[in-house]
Design goal:
It is a single chain. This protein is an alpha/beta fold. It has one domain: Nitrogenase molybdenum iron protein domain (Rossmann fold), CATH 3.40.50.1980. Helix content is 34%, strand content 17%. The longest helix is centred in the N-terminal third of the chain and has 18 residues. The radius of gyration is 15 Å and the shape is globular.
Length: 143
């Protein structure tokens, strides 16, 4: 149980840190969106400057993101099959093990949440990076 909590802690905190700046008091303005920088589970530096357009490539990442108050722009087919209350307007970006690069890039996401443990996800890294899409890989052992 402690491992489960430990593995969920980072994604939930990341989500909160990205979403909470949008809760500023009315009239509070900043000149530029603050960027949040961290290292993902594959050691890549990830810079996130917005959270309005997020793609989650697994049910667990989609659930965690939405529980933290985030909204999804795109998700893999497993998310549609397992989460019956998924909001309208979320785009299907392909299968869990082989998400579509073209569909993801077409959504112009500000962050893509992928698994470090799925080879089809890891293979997308260079292409997403070249397209200027921030991508974060997480390795989750237990839920």
């Amino acid at each position: 149980m402690l491992k489960k909590i430990k593995k969920l802690f980072f994604p939930v905190c990341l989500s909160a840190l990205i979403i909470l700046p949008g809760c500023l008091a009315p009239g509070a303005e900043s000149s530029a969106p603050a960027a949040f920088v961290f290292r993902d589970d594959l050691g890549h530096e990830v810079r996130v400057s917005g959270s309005a357009r997020v793609v989650a490539a697994s049910t667990s990442y989609a659930q965690t993101w939405m529980l933290a108050g985030g909204k999804l722009t795109g998700a893999t087919q497993d998310v549609f099959e397992e989460l019956k209350d998924l909001p309208k307007g979320v785009a299907d970006v392909g299968s869990l093990h082989s998400p579509s690069l073209e569909k993801i890039v077409a959504l112009r996401p500000q962050l893509v949440l992928l698994s470090a443990d799925i080879s089809g996800h890891v293979k997308l890294y260079e292409s997403l990076k070249s397209a200027g899409v921030p991508v974060a890989y997480f390795s989750v052992e237990n839920f």
